[in-house]
Amino acid sequence: MLALGPLSAAQVQTEAHSGPLAARPPDVLRLALQWSPQSQFAGIYMAQRKGLYADAGLRVELIHANAERSSLDLLHGDDADVATAFLADAIVAAAPPATSQAEAMDLVQIAQLVQHSNLMLLAWKDLGIQGPEDLDGQMLSHWQGAFSASFDVFFAAYDVEPVVIPQYYSVNLFLKRGVAACAAMQYNEYHRIWQAGVDDERLTGFLMRDYGLGFPEDGLYTTSDWLDRHGELARAMRRATLAGWEYARAHPEETLDVVLAEAAAAGIPANRPHERWMLEHILASILGTGNAPEPPGALNPTVYTQTVDTLVAAGLIGLAPDFSTFTPLDARTQ
């Protein structure tokens, strides 16, 4: 488990900034999570439940986003101090293309949690789909926005032109065979499709990271203004959150109990086998197996550049912030 020393109130409040706001941290730090309660956020739940945030001098309130307001919307609207978001979504929000009416968000990264992509396409094997070239002309669904960049590059690499329709929050259209293929997360929809009675033998899977595509996913983000005033709080949150994930890895059954309790309290249907599958895959994505190019919580500069280049090529962003601006807490930018 990561070493985590408690911070005194004096330590938390002492920062190298001036002005009345710098003298006192917020009473409650509001952390917006991307979606409904599930194992995707297990380490954060454990950091709160086991007092790791409290030991770090933090009083954290968790806010779950929904279909109407994303976690970044909550951050942008000053309804959250910190938000979780996928790396690509954060970059798109920080650097919209010149043709967009969207206003660039002031975003900086506190920590990169999920180090690799879990994004994939699943296809019906009995339709003759064995390899990428078999997707040509097929009707498929995938998520829009930043997700689409990986898929667009994948299709271009294999010179295929599927008929794409937007995918929303369900894989029911795929299960009803309304499309030949659909987007999925390895830790989520892939397992849900199996739970719906579809055995692996009936599917062909294309995991984007196996093709050198896909982006790192969940990270912790805030605004540069908030970080300037509360840098030590941000560092404490980073350490405590990673410690929460270490605790989740060491105590998986206790963690699943907490995840299921969070889901039940929110009225979200959940089952232990699915949440266990998700927890195992998320843990591997965050803490790795010891061979990861970066330590937990850090963003690889080369991966950042590759992600930016892919998003630019897809026309999804304009001029992105440089690595040091985007990741001010990274030791390489100090």
From TrEMBL:
Coiled-coil ranges from the UniProt annotation: none
Catalysed reaction, written as an equation: N(6)-(pyridoxal phosphate)-L-lysyl-[4-amino-5-hydroxymethyl-2-methylpyrimidine phosphate synthase] + L-histidyl-[4-amino-5-hydroxymethyl-2-methylpyrimidine phosphate synthase] + 2 Fe(3+) + 4 H2O = L-lysyl-[4-amino-5-hydroxymethyl-2-methylpyrimidine phosphate synthase] + (2S)-2-amino-5-hydroxy-4-oxopentanoyl-[4-amino-5-hydroxymethyl-2-methylpyrimidine phosphate synthase] + 4-amino-2-methyl-5-(phosphooxymethyl)pyrimidine + 3-oxopropanoate + 2 Fe(2+) + 2 H(+)
Pfam families: NMT1 (PF09084)
Keywords: Iron, Metal-binding, Pyridoxal phosphate, Thiamine biosynthesis, Transferase
InterPro entries assigned: NMT1/THI5, SsuA/THI5
Residues annotated as domain SsuA/THI5-like: 39-254
Keyword presence, Amino-acid biosynthesis: no
Molecular-function annotations in GO: metal ion binding; transferase activity
Highest taxon, organism lineage: Bacteria
Gene Ontology terms: biological process: thiamine biosynthetic process
Pathway: Cofactor biosynthesis; thiamine diphosphate biosynthesis
Subunit structure: Homodimer.
Similarity-based family: Belongs to the NMT1/THI5 family.
Protein function: Responsible for the formation of the pyrimidine heterocycle in the thiamine biosynthesis pathway. Catalyzes the formation of hydroxymethylpyrimidine phosphate (HMP-P) from histidine and pyridoxal phosphate (PLP). The protein uses PLP and the active site histidine to form HMP-P, generating an inactive enzyme. The enzyme can only undergo a single turnover, which suggests it is a suicide enzyme.
Name this polypeptide is given: Thiamine pyrimidine synthase
Annotated organism of origin: Thiohalocapsa marina
